[in-house]
Amino acid sequence: MMRANVFKDVNKSGLVEKPIPKAGPGEAVIKVTLTTICGTDIHIIRGEFPVKEGLTIGHEPIGIIHELGDGVTGYTVGQRVAVNAITPCGVCNYCLSANWSQCGGFLGGWKLGNTIDGCQADYVKIPAAMANLAPIPDELSDEDVLLTTDIFSTGLSGAESAEIKVGDTVVVFGQGPIGLGAVAGAKLKGAALIIGVDTIPSRMKMAKKMGADMVIDFRKSDPVKEILGITNGRGVDVAIEALGLQATFENAVKSTRVGGTISSLGVYPGDMASIGLPNKDFGFGLADKRIVSTLCPGGKERMRRLIELVRNERVNLRQLITHRFPLDEIDEAYELFSSQGDGVIKVAITP
Ligand SMILES: [Zn+2]
Ligand SMILES: [Zn+2]
């Protein structure tokens, strides 16, 4: 048997005993050595994103291969691997169109902790193992690569979808984990000026460490006004929305130059129709502004690239891990992470 953190009911989750999963054909079972809690897990527990009762939560696993199913070649038991939150099959039409996160259809690539048992547990079963197990180089620790499994992949994908060009001016609304990943992504894509927007001091400080040139405190001044001032009234080339709120989405549209791109990473709870487009700022549909949305790509090749960025010190993700908990104290970890207390950015959970 093993421990697993499961969704029980709205605002109810906790550890239960479950059998250790068995690897079927093409699958692998990983002994989880490190994982984390995602903002999406909070949405799940609050009942804002429905999953079935008893499902193990969590989609960001680092671990050691415990068992390989029939037909899985190229890996060995005991090998250390990272697995992305998105585990595409690698063979469906969506995957072969490079829409890894939409494998098999809408959101289909997100399986762990959504449609199948996730990784806030001692063991987790990984589907399509040969498409998804990414070996970790010996010189990197579990903590070094933990955040490649979701938040950095997602943040970077917001910068990639926006097609940031060398010399662009970029604003990122929200300096939570995803927003901080987007700042790092904008820097990697060659932005000339990166502006972060938040109000929590620890996050504003971290934004600079991740590559932001300046950070606007939205409680102290109107970010749209500030951004238009900084850009001589022109607006930014790219605005990345990393929160999922009407106000930030609207500010992203307002602060983007005509012909610019609004890249949406936030998860919008409730009715999407409630997220209105500020018509005048969208130029009544005539301003050549572009809105793109992205769910992070997954699969082992994506992971290999992200791990290479860490290995060659192009990005430091470890500094985002501010708190550490054993799996037995996962309830405390959830409490801290969801209350955003004590300067928390990401928590690491060790089974
Ligand atoms: Zn996540
Ligand atoms: Zn697929």
Strand coverage percent = 15-25%
Please give the alpha-carbon distance between the first and last residues.
13 Å
What is the average of the pLDDT values?
96
Give the count of structural domains. 2
Number of strands: 15
General form: globular
List the ligand species.
Answer: zinc ion
Brief descriptors of the model:
351 residues; 6-stranded parallel sheet; 11 helices; Rossmann fold; 7-stranded mixed sheet; 2 domains; alpha/beta; binds zinc ion; Quinone Oxidoreductase, Chain A, domain 1
Set out the fold topology.
Blueprint: E1 2-9, E2 12-18, E3 28-36, H1 39-45, E4 62-68, E5 80-82, H2 93-96, E6 123-126, H3 129-132, E7 134-135, H4 142-145, H5 151-161, E8 169-173, H6 177-188, E9 193-198, H7 201-210, E10 214-217, H8 223-230, E11 236-241, H9 246-255, E12 256-264, E13 290-293, H10 300-311, E14 321-326, H11 330-339, E15 346-350
Parallel strand pairs: 8-9, 8-11, 9-10, 11-12, 12-13, 14-15
Antiparallel strand pairs: 1-2, 3-4, 3-6, 3-15, 4-5, 5-7
Helix pairs in contact: 5-6, 6-7, 8-9
The chain binds zinc ion (ZN) (2 copies).
One zinc ion is lined by residues 88-89, 92, 94-95, 103-104.
Explain the overall architecture.
The chain has 351 residues and is of the alpha/beta class. Strand 1 (2-9) and strand 2 (12-18) form a beta hairpin. The chain is globular, with a radius of gyration of 20 Å. Helix 5 packs across helix 6, helix 6 (177-188) runs parallel beside helix 7 and helix 8 (223-230) runs parallel beside helix 9. The two termini are 13 Å apart. The protein has 11 helices and 15 strands. The chain folds into 2 domains: 2-150 and 296-350, Medium-chain alcohol dehydrogenases, catalytic domain (Quinone Oxidoreductase, Chain A, domain 1, Alpha-Beta Complex), CATH 3.90.180.10; 155-293, Rossmann fold. The protein has helices spanning 39-45, 93-96, 129-132, 142-145, 151-161, 177-188, 201-210, 223-230, 246-255, 300-311, 330-339; strands spanning 2-9, 12-18, 28-36, 62-68, 80-82, 123-126, 134-135, 169-173, 193-198, 214-217, 236-241, 256-264, 290-293, 321-326, 346-350. Residues 88-89, 92, 94-95, 103-104 line the site of one zinc ion (ZN). Residues 38, 40, 59-60, 85, 150 line the site of one zinc ion (ZN).
